[in-house]
Amino acid sequence: MRLDRFLANLPCYNRQQVRLLLVQRRVRVDGQVVADPLHDVREFSRVEVDEQLHQAGRPLRYLMLHKPAGCVSATHDPQHRTVLDLLPEALREDLHIAGRLDFNTTGLMILTNDGQWSRRLTQPATKLPKVYRVETEDEIGEHYLGKFAEGFYFAFEDLTTQPARLEILGPREARLEIVEGRYHQVKRMFGHFQNKVTGLHRERMGSIVLDPALAPGEYRPLTPAEIASI
Ligand code: URA
């Protein structure tokens, strides 16, 4: 059904109010602002005006998975097992990954079908801390601390990384908090010191902490409090 007709059929708006709502960009369909009165609204579309939900659309799903090593952060891969293969088929449909991890990186992975919510989790602008435990081939020196706080220049993207917090836990072990998720970011940061990352594990994204009860490969739904924290 056309969006303007859908809205005018609700008891709360007449046709003139609907026109105004659209022009004022107060209507969202599936999380995106829509101003086009002809936009097609389906049974599974989510329709909101300001903060009011008029049609819930498909149920939103939010999962935490303990990603094991040796699996790809993708929904399909011709060669390797993907993180979606770890979920029962009935749960997989329309899920996407909020913050990929490399093939051998382990730890907290969040999957959802709520695009608006997952953008808050991954967009550098929201500056949500992501915390990793890092193991390296060579010793981590005290002189690393200043460089992580100052930022690293990434020529490919032509940017300097946001200040990051490094806590040295042992000669070859550290905890690192970053607020972005650039391609291979942690490995490239340690690469600046020619120090190879040999183990990488994501412990936390914002206030969502990997549940210690989850063994590698296991998952659980996020709690309402975890969802609301983002
Ligand atoms: N940084 C990396 O280099 N790899 C990851 O998997 C995550 C962050």
UniProtKB/TrEMBL annotation:
It comes from the Bacteria. One of its GO terms (biological process) is enzyme-directed rRNA pseudouridine synthesis. One of its GO terms (molecular function) is RNA binding. Signal peptide: none annotated. Residues 1-61 form the RNA-binding S4 domain. It is an enzyme of class 5 (isomerase). The keyword RNA-binding applies. It catalyses: uridine(516) in 16S rRNA = pseudouridine(516) in 16S rRNA. Its EC number is 5.4.99.-. Keywords: Isomerase, RNA-binding. SUPFAM superfamilies: Alpha-L RNA-binding motif, Pseudouridine synthase. The keyword Transmembrane helix does not apply. InterPro entries: PsdUridine_s_RsuA/RluB/E/F_cat (IPR042092), PsdUridine_synth_cat_dom_sf (IPR020103), PsdUridine_synth_RsuA/RluA (IPR006145), PsdUridine_synth_RsuA/RluB/E/F (IPR000748), PsdUridine_synth_RsuA/RluB_CS (IPR018496), RsuA_PseudoU_synthase (IPR050343), S4_RNA-bd (IPR002942), S4_RNA-bd_sf (IPR036986). Belongs to the pseudouridine synthase RsuA family. Responsible for synthesis of pseudouridine from uracil-516 in 16S ribosomal RNA. This is Pseudouridine synthase. It comes from Pseudomonas reidholzensis. The gene is rsuA.
